[in-house]
Amino acid sequence: MSFAQSVLAPWALILTWLLSLGVVGWALSRRPWQALIMDPALQHRWLGATLAVVLMWQLRAQAVDWLTLHLVFTVLMTLVFKVPLALISNVLINVSMVVIGRNEWLMLGANVLVTGIVPAAIIGAVWRLVDRRLPDNLMVFLFACGFFGAALATLGTGLAAVLLIIVAGADPEAVYLAKEYARFLPLLMPSEAFITGMLLSILLVYHPNWVATFNDHRYIDLQ
After folding, report:
1. Which of helix, strand or coil describes residue 21?
2. pLDDT in tens, 54-91
């Protein structure tokens, strides 16, 4: 889900821009382009995945003029490419939505925050928990990160969007609709979780080396 039109107070627009710029600046400080330069195959996978997500974002439901519902895919991008590349990809995707006239420039910071930073942070925390605390098992990784992690990130994304509108909404009607929308968040979780889990399972079967957060020697060879 993302914001198509500005419904936030000016101070919230500035704050979301600053937060997004700060986190994206951190991602750039990790120098993720070095891995892309050293691995042409990774370049093709990352660019292809980014373009695919741009196309998938066109399949959206326009709930109201200012809010669109769609699959986000940030969890899958984070698991496959790790947080820095996933965030840069999300910025490019959101910029493309602005360029083609789907979203407004003013909402770019809020959209990057909601569709990129929040789900990436949630799945990053889930992955670290799986990596450090749970057994080295392929199914544990798949279900905890691919299915449960995606569902939890979808819930976090929706709650972040609703909270933004409730706290900083400039339109009382938008605030009311956001509260009503919050009741239906659990219905959006299964679709993102199913698609993410399905695609992740395919990658783990055929190309486990493509998933940057997955250690095939640790999870497969030692089984």
Report:
1. helix
2. 999 998 877 677 888 889 999 999 999 999 999 999 99
Q: Identify whether the C-beta of residue 5 lies closer than 8 Å to the C-beta of residue 66.
A: yes
Give DSSP secondary structure letters for 130-191.
Answer: HHHHS-S-HHHHIIIIIIIIHHHHHHHHHHHHHHHHHHHBS-HHHHHHHHHHHTTHHHHHHH
CATH number of the domain where residue 13 is located = 1.10.1760.20
Work out how many domains the chain is built from and give that number: 1
The answer to whether 177 and 56 have CB atoms below 8 angstroms apart is no
Write out pLDDT tens, residues 28-56.
999 999 999 999 999 999 999 999 999 99
Residue-number span of the structural domain to which 95 is assigned: 2-221
User: What's the whole-model pTM score?
Assistant: 0.93
